[in-house]
Amino acid sequence: MKKQTGDEPIGLFDTKLLDILVCPMTRKPLLYDADAQELISEAAGVAYPIRQGVPVMLIEEARKL
């Protein structure tokens, strides 16, 4: 898993969003997994998908880790 700092966009997802996005369950920061195109919430143990560059931050769409 590659953690991005938000300095530059990778693919379609703009990693600058990591500065403002938080997990909707825990309100904790997220990690970007570029290979899987997911935002990882280590605190909640779930991954939110990124579809066409847009993070889907719905709890019911999260995948359990």
From TrEMBL:
**Pfam assignment, any one:** Trm112p
Instruction: Tell me which domain of life the UniProt entry assigns to the organism this sequence originates from.
Output: Bacteria
Q: By its UniProt entry, which HAMAP family does this protein fall under?
A: UPF0434
- Family, as annotated: Belongs to the UPF0434 family.
Q: Which PANTHER family match?
A: PROTEIN PREY, MITOCHONDRIAL (PTHR33505:SF4), ZGC:162634 (PTHR33505)
| This protein's name | UPF0434 protein J4G78_08230
Q: Which organism is it from?
A: Parasphingorhabdus cellanae
